[in-house]
Amino acid sequence: MARARLFARNEQIFRCPVCSLPMRLGAQWSLACAAGHSFDLSKDGYVHLLPNAKASKYDKELFRSRRLINGSGYFAPLLDKLADGMKESIVEPSSAQPLSILDAGCGEGSHLLYLLRKLEPASQQDILAAGMDASKPGIALAAKGNAPVIWCVADLVRSPFRDRTFHMVCNILSPSNYDEFRRLLAPGGRLVKVIPGPDYLKEFRQALFGRPGPEREETSGETAALFARHFPGMTQQRVRYEVRLDGQHLEAMLRMTPLSWHAPEENMRRLLTQSAFAVTFDFIILWSEPLRGSSKSPLR
Ligand SMILES: [Zn+2]
Fold it and tell me: How many secondary structure helices (H) and strands (E) does the chain include?
């Protein structure tokens, strides 16, 4: 019920993912546009706005692994850096307008919830938080619990939010759609994207494939260059540290890492016999300049 009221209070941020008309929350707790496209709020308090849902690689078990790892503090140094950068951007703490944040590709929601816990005490404004992901099992897990977040299963290519809705769009280790991000950002708003750095999980690469080099087709440098083409004036920060995974967390970490999906079975088995394993967490945070526009925004 609390989640339904949150959707009702903020129905003006939505637009129909099919025809782009504004949507309203109707009596039956469904978001509907004037053309008759309608999307029900689930009993767990999220809305499924993906008209043509596809099966994805991300199953329930995978998101349980992600929740276990994300909830174990391994990402804290990264997320603290992110929260610090966001706090610096809050320059009008007395503004009556809520500070609106979208996590685009939020998965099971742990990172967004962590950021909110950091930002809420620092902000005198209300914070309107939304998390969207194309994976239903991810969002279903995120929506359990009672955090005041607008959770949506939605497609990044046609996201269900109106133009200029968010002061901050985060995109953490997840694919981007820069045109959509630009459309969604309010004047003065910023995009922040986290990508793996060159050394991310290099010990896994060594153990699984016998070589430390990056397996990703797209290197971090190429991703950063693409970001900068869409958002000139980009700045970047690198966050690199080592974490020690115990046996249970090692298995979960491997399960959620695409790297392991193509690894030789035998190497996987050998790695899983370890009782603890140290891996490098290496991230690059890409910040856009505040979007130029009216000065009404609470962000610089
Ligand atoms: Zn519609």
Answer: 11, 11
